[in-house]
Amino acid sequence: MNAVDSLRIDRVFLEKAAQRPDAVALVVDDRSWTRADVRRMAESAAAFLRERGVGPGDRVLAQYTTDARDLAVAVAASGLGATLIPVPTSLGGLELSHILRLAEPVVAIAHGAELPHGTTVPAGVAVVDVADVTDVTEGRGIEVPCLPVPTDHTAVIGVTSGSTGLPKGVMHTWSSLHYAASHAAAVVRVRDGEAICTPGASAGAPGYAFFTYLGLAHGATIVRASRWNADAVLDLMARHRVVWSMTVVSMVRMFVDAARKRPEPPDLSAMRAMCVGGSAIASSLVHEAKDVLGVDAIRMFGLSECLGFATMSPADPLELRAELDGYPYAGTEVHAFDDERRMLPPGEVGEAGVRGPSLMQGYLGDTDPDSRMAPGGYFLTGDWIRMTDDGHVKVVGRKKDLIIRGGYNIDPSEIENLVRARADVLEASVFGLPDERLGEIVCLCVVPQPGAAPGLDEIVDDLRARGLSTQKLPQVYATRDAFPLSPDGKVLKEVIRREVQAERETEAAR
Fold this sequence. Notes:
single chain, GMP Synthetase, Chain A, domain 3, 31% helix, Long-chain fatty acid--CoA ligase, AMP-bd_C, ligase, ANL_N_sf
């Protein structure tokens, strides 16, 4: 057995299941499954997939929500030496067709009899129902075989959200998954038998690494709600004494708002930390999480292409955790780069470049693998960062979100954080819209608090009073009852942008 084989999800989970078969592996709402339950389904899945020709090096695509059947498929596919492609059930037919063309899996596993409407399934790909794959009919299963794979074997292909175009397949090895999950678990000392919670997406590379892999490999009980609801997730966290969770900024805000409406706050005293990533988080929200939820919200920096590679620690002072986005894990290097891909010194803002053990192998079907690489093997993430003198990372915005108004560069996150601080605003999104004279102008879209109706004039007056430069003041304004979210809980800013632009064009045509 090579060193990589010892990191595989089938090997580490089956060892845990043998040690404590009655330990709870998964909780979804009010239902739970033991490690023995998952193992039995994995044995059935292994038999089913092997009968359909799945073996080492093959690919298995599966709609994935981290229910017990999905965990079983993950263990079975790994045991057969196959590569798993866990895709969200929300992925539409157009996007799913694209991934199927690129990946050419042997089997596509659906949550139901069929894949989404509009999906084009390539010839030779068998579409099967996950209920049939994991059926534990007596005598049907086999012992999960744990077939050998090479050290550079692609363990998982995560699918990006596709918020700005067709999704990409991000390829990771067992080594990169193990590195990211182990370091995340070490931050809060996740121990065998303790509970972790996945409030958001469980598909894709981050969801697989930090919930399926971390949970099964470390013997943690994975706790989740079948549907996103802040109150339901808070109750599950309290009931199962969850010690750690990873979430995104929008969900933390919803947790805080939900807790404020309760006569008594939820009992989250068992939680050692809640990691937050996906986008820049306002310092005020870190303080609110502590004041309202009693939880240490710690920033974590990572992405599908390079799984969590920097984080703050619960031991860091609150003032430091509220301002900085992480210190790189051992073996990972992070630097800022300019537009010519030259490394910048600490204190200067540039695009984040990272290299380390959790970096992906590459994109599925990529014909230009060097397009996002800086000299020295650093992957350019698209985030604007500033490195401190002592090596901490401060994320200051997203490169693609930058608004250029009459030659003046505007970071949307600065405006968003100021607007979110208002008592009458639940969520805010700022982006640029095309303008003939200035190139781009600033658009603000908000989700008001229930019963509130903030207007553009009063928001602009407030921003001006708080010292925001005139060039950054919003000129276009829209409201929504809720923002569209990706499967991992990120606001789909491009969707909002297209909607608002279409509304402006319709109005102009009248």
